Amino acid sequence: MADSKALPQKEVTEPSRPESTRGGVTFTPRVDIFETDHELTLYADVPGVRCEDVDLRYERGELLLHGRVRPRHPERGFVLNEYEEGDFYRVFTIHESIDNNRISAECKNGVLTVHLPKAEAARPKQIKIKSE
């Protein structure tokens, strides 16, 4: 007869982000997300990132944000050095109600603003009530 020993349970782990193939520090940018009837607007703090150094992609229901920070100063001559340099990386799962063909973004003063318009079918509709 088969031995009925209890099998060890697998550990539950949180989903992890993809491993970086580039060395260095990677930060998770802080974000605010606002919703209106017409769109979601995402604001991400990415200090030190220039517009041309932002890689923003929509793939398979995910919005991937990667901001590359270029070194500001050489490693020598600092009197005080508290600002840590590194890239920004974050991934968001996007609901199917977002019209991915109309996603747009702009970057200004260290803040990335991403507009995620809702598809017409997902927008709330006001229903008129007739009186008798």
What would you say this structure looks like, in words?
The protein is mostly beta strands. It has a domain at 26-71 and 85-122: Immunoglobulin-like (Sandwich). Helix content is 0%, strand content 39%. It has strands spanning 26-27, 31-35, 39-45, 49-59, 62-69, 87-93, 104-108, 111-117. Strands 1-6-5-4 form a four-stranded mixed sheet, with no helix packed on it. The chain has a four-stranded antiparallel sheet with strand order 2-3-8-7, with no helix packed on it. It starts with 25 loop residues before the first strand and ends in a 15-residue tail after the last strand.
Any key phrases for this structure?
elongated; 132 residues; four-stranded antiparallel beta sheet; four-stranded mixed beta sheet; Immunoglobulin-like; mainly beta; single chain
Tell me the strand order in the biggest sheet. 1-6-5-4
Count of DSSP helices?
0
CATH fold field value of the domain at 26-71 and 85-122: Immunoglobulin-like
Just give the CATH class of the domain at 26-71 and 85-122: Mainly Beta
Tell how many strands the DSSP assignment holds: 8
Arithmetic mean of pLDDT? 82
How much strand? 35-45%
CATH architecture title of the domain at 26-71 and 85-122: Sandwich
Structural class by sheet pairing and helices: mainly beta
How would you sum up the global shape? elongated
Helix content: under 10%
Radius of gyration: 22 Å
| Secondary-structure element pattern, one letter each | EEEEEEEE
Distance between the termini: 78 Å
Low-confidence stretches: none
Oligomer: single chain
